[in-house]
Specification:
- The chain is built from 14 helices and eight strands.
- It is α/β, with parallel strands linked by helices and about 325 residues long.
- It has two domains: about 45 residues, no CATH class; about 250 residues, 2-enoyl-CoA Hydratase, Chain A, domain 1 (Alpha-Beta Complex).
- Strands 1, 2, 3, 4, 5, 6, 7 and 8 form an eight-stranded mixed beta sheet that branches.
- It is globular, with a radius of gyration of 20 Å.
């Protein structure tokens, strides 16, 4: 993986790299464990101090970091016996959305997620994680499959938004997203969505109408990108930093606004610094949420999902 270091994360990159090297060495030499623990504590303290002061715009940059784990990385780390299902049975297969059947801790499930590419060639193949209508119709097909066979659904959200190109519009982009939402709203199985990077607009929501919505510590979720918001409000895309602050799109804001149900802690420096530990945190959050939802009946799952999204944006104060 090519090195990519943001300016504000430079102080912690060296020490996190040293922790990784020492951890590998400690596997064969237990005498190094005290030094490893010392370095890990130092990395944790440094990360907490540095990242506590991050601005919303810096968190947006972290959510888009090209070295962050993507959906297929989490699938490999958390699931076994994954069988990818391709195509929408209508037009084509969209590589910007991947999904299929797998096992999560011995249980059969359906997994769907946005997939970005690493490097220019793969990013072109994956369309930079921006799905076409056929990607959403593939997701819809998987939702129907899960409902038919009573399989829980896990979705992973990481997209700038649905692809806005002419061909996508001609093939019914908005209808495909709307149809996804309709199907998700009525399936009688648990749905757990995890925002692993950036969640942009309806292109993210098409995988996000879930009973439980989690977000990684440095993930973002928004109706529009900060750049797009700045271009509309102030006719100046350079004001994206101000827009990021006003949009309230970072994990703490999303939790306080009840847009998400849980913030999943990331390793020191972000998920890209230690993908293994990041996957472990995501796996635990999925297991806990699934256990909670297993206690609900099919009717309760549908009703809870409906009430959850109806409550978003409600305001109990007085209008002035």
């Amino acid at each position: 993986m090519a090195a990519h270091v943001l300016s504000f994360e430079k102080p912690i990159v060296d020490i996190v790299s040293r922790v990784r090297e020492l951890r590998a060495a400690a596997d064969s030499d237990p005498k190094l464990l005290p030094e490893l623990r010392r370095l890990q504590d130092k990395a944790n303290k440094l990360a907490r101090a540095l990242y506590k002061e991050l601005t919303p715009w810096q968190k947006v940059q972290l959510s888009r970091h090209p070295n962050r784990p993507y959906t297929l990385d989490y699938m490999k780390a958390l699931f076994t016996d994954f069988v990818e299902l391709a195509g929408d049975r209508k037009f084509a297969n969209d590589a910007a959305i991947v999904g299929g059947m797998a096992r999560f801790r011995g249980r059969s499930v359906v997994v769907v997620g946005h997939q970005k590419g690493r490097g220019a060639k793969e990013n072109v193949k994956r369309n930079f994680g921006m799905p076409h209508p056929e990607g959403y119709r593939k997701a819809e097909r998987l939702y129907d499959l899960a409902s038919r066979f009573k399989l829980p659904i896990f979705t992973f959200i990481d997209t700038p938004g649905a692809y806005p190109g002419l061909g996508a519009e001609e093939r019914g982009q908005s209808e495909a997203i709307g149809s996804c939402l309709a199907v998700m709203s009525r399936v009688r199985v648990p749905i757990i969505a995890t925002i692993i990077g950036e969640g942009g607009s309806g292109g993210a929501l098409a995988l996000g109408l879930a009973n439980r919505v989690h977000v990684l510590e440095y993930g973002t979720y928004s109706v529009i990108s900060p750049e797009g918001c700045a271009s509309i409000l102030w006719k100046d895309g350079a004001k994206a930093e101000l827009a990021a602050e006003r949009l309230k799109i970072t994990a703490p804001d999303l939790l306080s606004l009840r847009v998400v149900d849980r913030v999943v802690d990331e390793p020191p420096g972000g998920a890209h610094q230690d993908p293994v530990r990041a996957a472990e945190s995501v796996g635990e959050s999925l297991a806990v949420a699934l256990a909670e939802l297993d206690a609900m009946s099919e009717r309760e799952l549908v009703d809870q999902r409906y009430e959850r999204f109806r409550a978003l944006g409600s305001y109990a104060g007085e209008l002035t």
